[in-house]
Amino acid sequence: MDLQPLLNHFFGHFGNQESRPSFYFAPGRVNLIGEHTDYNGGFVLPCALQYGTYLLIRQTEEPVIRLVSENLPYQAKIPVSESFSRIGNEWINYPLGVLEQFRQRDIAIEGMELLFSGDIPNNAGLSSSASIEMVTAYALNDLLEANLPLIDLIKLSQKAENQFVGVNCGIMDQFAVGMGERDHAIFLNCRTLENKMVPLILDGFTLVVANTNKTRGLADSKYNERVAECQLAVTCLSEVFEIGQLSEISYMQFYKIQDQIPDELIRRRARHVISENQRVLNAVSCLWNHNILEFGALMNASHESLRNNYEVTGFELDTLVAEAQQFPGVIGSRMTGAGFGGCTVSIVKTDKVDHFMETVGKSYQEKTGLKADFYVAEVSDGVREVNKSNGH
Ligand code: GLA
Predict the structure, then answer these.
(1) Which of 12, 124, 211, 296 could pair with 373 as two cysteines, CB 3.0-4.6 Å apart?
(2) pLDDT of amino acid 388
(3) Exposure of 15 in the CB half-sphere (CA atoms within 13 A)
(4) Residue 121: its pLDDT value, please?
């Protein structure tokens, strides 16, 4: 990343070239498998991407917080004496939610200037929001000398999204953005936060992310609806099994007691979560055993369950996945993230990647009228301060 154009923009906007801002980066993430399991205390397997959010930040004498973005027009200028409140559906709510979390911990907020710049597509299921939250939290921790450990920054960023933005998300995104490690997938137990970095050795295969470019209308409210449906399933199953979250029972146990859930739709929601949890365990074994073929089959099965049981896919995601799965040289493809539009992730034979993008892109466009964007994923490190001299 070349720091100079961002610096120019920063000085162009805020002036005072005398005082240099600090420079931070937080990645986006792609989840390989384990979808809609995190808020059920289950397992996930995400990794951090090379794309993400850059932040230039500087303290000011004037007790005012100024926030601008290179990507979106909305700007804010908020006196530190004011309370923070949500502003429509603006991007600004992510950093504001994080600032509010610092304030709730009695950390004094001072005047500051922040310039954000992102290269992850917004609202595409690659965690642009967690990336903004985490880059803000990490930078504020330094600027305000708060000394919070990384895990606290992860938890407070999730809280910012739950309480300030109003999406009842789990912890996967903030965790992956915070803890990502180059060339590793993060095997995370979302109930205990125990985790292990699993080397992602794809031997001649490449991870390709594809954006359906379908607008994700009402995604947040549908997401919260799924969270509530899972809670309902827990209430029904608790009559026979004392559980607090769906991840606490195995698929075998669920199979025997599923009739405890009278509503067929709620039963399917639970079936997805509990079977997906098992698929993550199997997928992790595949990675340790270098069994990429079986890993791909699990990705396909995950998509099928997200389509039929959890109903978070839709025409565009299903079409893009079906086209990818049919392509010779693909061993697995599925939606990634919350769904309702957004991105897919596929494992593609490395020497077929260009052909894959062209062929799948063409047939997707013919069927949906939309142009997909493709990205070769490089699995990268988590949030960090960027070295000032070379921009890395
Ligand atoms: C979104 C949420 C995550 C997770 C995924 C679905 O990305 O932010 O917490 O629930 O959806 O797996």
Answers:
(1) 211
(2) 58
(3) 1
(4) 82
Amino acid at 101: Q
pLDDT of residue 334: 98
Closest approach atom of ligand 1 to CA 125: 7
**Rounded Cα gap, residues 171 and 98, in angstroms:** 15
pLDDT in tens, 23-38: 999 999 999 999 999 9
Number of domains in the chain: 1
Q: Return d(Cα 301, Cα 282) in angstroms, integer.
A: 12
- Strands of the sheet containing 46-59, edge to edge, are 76-79, 64-69, 112-118, 46-59, 22-31, 384-385
Reported pTM: 0.97
Say whether 173 is catalytic. Answer: yes
- Give the closest residue (by CA) to ligand 1 atom 10: 36
Q: Is the CB of 169 under 6 A from ligand 1?
A: yes
Domain that holds residue 123: 4-199
Contacts of 284 (CB under 8 A, 6+ apart): 43, 45, 187, 198
The answer as to whether 346 is a domain residue is: no
At 24 the three-state DSSP class reads strand
One-letter amino acid at 4 equals: Q
> Looking at the domain assignment, is residue 110 inside a domain?
yes
Contact 209, 61 (CB under 8 A): no
- CB 38 less than 6 A from any atom of ligand 1: yes
170 Cα to the center of ligand 1, angstroms: 6
pLDDT on residue 391: 47
Does residue 71 lie within any of the structural domains? Answer: yes
**Helix axis angle, 128-143 relative to 172-179, nearest 10°?**
60
Work out the percent of the chain whose per-residue pLDDT is above 70: 98
Structure tokens at 360: 């799948």
**Domain containing 11 — which CATH number?**
3.30.230.10
Enumerate residue ranges in the chain where pLDDT < 70.
218, 388-392
Q: Would 247 be classed as within a structural domain?
A: no
